[in-house]
Amino acid sequence: LQISGYLNLLANTIDNFTHGLAVAASFLVSRKVGFLTTMAILVHEIPHEVGDFAILLRAGFDRWSAAKMQLSTALGGILGACFAICAQSPKGAGETVAWILPFTSGGFLYIALVNVVPDLLEEKNPWNSLQQILLLCTGITVMVLLALT
Q1: Do 80 and 73 contact (CB within 8 A), yes or no?
Q2: Which residues cross the membrane (predicted)?
């Protein structure tokens, strides 16, 4: 088995930990914010997990082992949620949310931009770049509209 598979599992566990933090902290804000955050993370996670599964297969894991290892990384999300709930201040959820949500959203933005911007800069076809920028702006607009409702 290649080391890239194990590195991917470690990165996926950390990623799931931050997702658990974000979901739990969002539910501490309100049900609406919690459900919106959960849906956003699910939309992100489904293709992400499929890609991670393919990385594990390429690294030499068989299908069953790759599936078990992917499932075990989900424990990182549960640990993140438990950490957010246990970190709740006796003064209320406000102090917990005040550092968890900016931390996780900043991490998500950083990762997204580190993955997207280099691809945009290397794109040779201006139409493809314009489409990607329009889709990025559409995603931001959807987030703003959901926040306003």
Answers
A1: no
A2: 69-87, 99-117, 129-148
Q: First and final CA of the chain: distance in angstroms?
A: 48
Residue 142 and residue 29: Cα distance in Å, rounded?
A: 20
Length of the chain counted residue by residue: 149
- Quick check: pTM over 0.85? no
DSSP the chain: --HHHHHHHHHHHHHHHHHHHHHHHHHHH-HHHHHHHHHHHHHHHHHHHHHHHHHHHHTT--HHHHHHHHHHHTHHHHHHHHHHHHT-BTTBHHHHHHHHHHHHHHHHHHHHHHHHHHHHHH---HHHHHHHHHHHHHHHHHHHHHHH-
Q: pLDDT by residue (tens digit) across 46-58?
A: 888 888 899 999 9
Are 88 and 96 within 8 A, CB to CB?
yes
Non-local (6+) Cβ contacts of 59 within 8 A are 1, 2, 4, 5, 6, 8
CB 99 within 8 A of CB 37: no
